[in-house]
Amino acid sequence: MWGDLRVGIEIKRRLPHEATSVAKARRALRPLERRLDPDTFETLRLLVSELVTNSVRHGLGENSEEIELTVRASRATIRVEVADGGAGFDASPRAEGQDEGSGWGLHLLETLSDRWGTERNGRMRVWFELVDSGAFTVRRELSGRAMGLRPASFVGEVSTRG
C-alpha cells in the first residue's frame, strides 16, 4: 500500500470556506503522491475532497474560522483530520430514497477508510485513517517476478485490496 514512506510526513493547511479550498486541499497532498501506490493515493484524494467539501457546505457556524486540514502519514497509517466551526452532525447511514445527488461523502468514508469518526471540542473534527495491515499488500518485486518482469522495475509495495 505504501511505497517509499520510510519517515513520517505531516501536512497542515488552513483553508477558507470557499469552493476553491477543495482543490487546494488536493494539491496539499502532492508530497504523498509518489510515496503511495496510485490506488491508495486516489482514495486519499477522494476522501479529503469529500470532507473538505462537507466543511465548505456545512461548516460555517458562529465560530466561522478557517477549515483546518491535517494529514499525518507514517509507514503504517495515514490519518486525516478536517476541522471547522460548524455545529456538527450525527452520522447515519444513507436512507432509502435520499437525494441521489448528495450525501455520499460519509458513505464513501465508511466504505473506503479503515476507521473514521468525529470529535467535538470547540470545533467539529471529522477524521479517517487508512491502515496498511499487511494483509493486502504484496511486494512489487515478487509480483513482477510472477509476471516475468525484472525486479529492478519494481520498488516498494502495492495494494491488492479489492
Structural domain tally: 1
Label the CATH architecture. Answer: 2-Layer Sandwich
Which H/E pattern describes the elements? EHHHEEHEEEHE
Structural class: alpha+beta
**Total count of helical runs of at least 4 residues:** 5
What global shape is seen?
Answer: globular
> Beta-strand level of the residues, as a percent range?
25-35%
- Spatial ordering of strands, largest sheet: 1-2-3-5-4
CATH topology: Heat Shock Protein 90
What is the overall pLDDT average?
75
Rg from C-alpha positions?
A: 17 Å
Main sheet specs = 5 strands, antiparallel
The tally of beta strands, per DSSP, is 7
Give the distance, in angstroms, between the N- and C-terminal Cα atoms.
Answer: 12 Å
Explain the overall architecture.
By secondary structure, this protein is α+β, with helices and mostly antiparallel strands. It has one domain: Heat Shock Protein 90 (2-Layer Sandwich), CATH 3.30.565. Helix content is 30%, strand content 26%. Strands 1-2-3-5-4 form a 5-stranded antiparallel β-sheet, covered by helices on one side. Strands 6-7 form a two-stranded antiparallel sheet. The longest helix has 21 residues.
Entry summary:
With 162 residues, the chain is of the alpha+beta class. The protein has helices at residues 20-28, 30-33, 38-58, 105-112, 140-146, and strands spanning 9-15, 67-73, 77-84, 115-120, 124-131, 137-139, 157-159. The strands form two sheets. The chain has a five-stranded antiparallel beta sheet, with helices on one face.
